[in-house]
Amino acid sequence: MLKPILRPVAAVTWVALSATAHAYDLPGLNLGTTSFYDGSPAPAGPGWYLEEYLTYSRASRFNDAHGNKLALPRQDLEVVAPTTQIIYVGQPLANGAMPGFTLINTSLAHVSVEDGLNNAALSSRAGFGDVTLGAFLQLPTVTRADGSPWLTQRVEADVTVPVGAYDRNRSINPGSHFWSFNPYYAATYWFSPQWSASGRFMYLWNGRNDQPQAGFGDASSTQAGQALHANLTLQYAIDAQLSLGLNSYWLKQITDTEVDGHAVSGRREKVWAIGPGMMYAFNKENILSVNAYFEQQAQNRTQGNKLVFNWLHRF
Prior knowledge:
Layout: E1 47-62, E2 76-89, E3 98-106, E4 110-114, E5 131-138, E6 142-143, E7 149-161, E8 180-181, E9 184-190, E10 195-206, E11 208-209, E12 222-223, E13 227-237, E14 242-253, E15 257-259, E16 262-264, E17 270-283, E18 286-299, E19 302-314
Antiparallel strand pairs: 1-2, 1-19, 2-3, 2-4, 3-5, 5-7, 6-7, 7-8, 7-9, 8-10, 9-10, 10-13, 11-12, 12-15, 13-14, 14-17, 15-16, 17-18, 18-19
Pfam family, one: Phenol_MetA_deg
Protein name: Phenol degradation protein meta
Keywords: Signal
């Protein structure tokens, strides 16, 4: 029987956005940033938490609508992006649910892009990114007859405020220059005390950008399409501290991007990725996780690999 650290209070990663630069229409998203035990409550109960992420990603493909590389001599992108997240978990309500809120910032500490044309087609800048504000409700844990966890769940609504650095003449920016609404439902299901699976299912709506990137010509506004995306994991608890498993993510844009209020076909984004992951709980107040991802079948997006480090600490 496992000790409490990896029982229903084994949340490792919470609600941070993916530290991913964007050169296409959609903003940076949580694509694989959250992973094992994603639907679980805060590991040490109510209180304040700090979560730090560091994402290193590298892409060698800028793909078109058919998944083919763009016609550029070189297509190399390297990003180092730190994410800081502050989480407050409130006291349980009468029914056992725990409310809370979060603040998240993902910035670009380093970003370099090469197009083989002296960066005439692709350019980038580092800097401070957008800020996301969220409110969540951690639902009561559903247990089996022996008291072991069976299902943990959380719902959250996130709003991204466009305060990040943005230059319409750069193809990759820390900020998106438009508002986004990104609610989600997360759950972890235990097959046994050792085996479990987690999923976070997200919807994305984007506001208008009244300073569209220069690549749109003389357009006065653009609006990125809506999208669905999910993070999925299968994890096995080796012991009360260490878990190993597979993590993955999936993204599909479901409506067209609009330019000056008119839908433009052929720009919908799509990608999926899979890779190994691990989590180590030093105690309930300090948890480390490392996840790797290898992207596949990207359309209208970059395609590459990423490595995500995460540290969760309770004050």
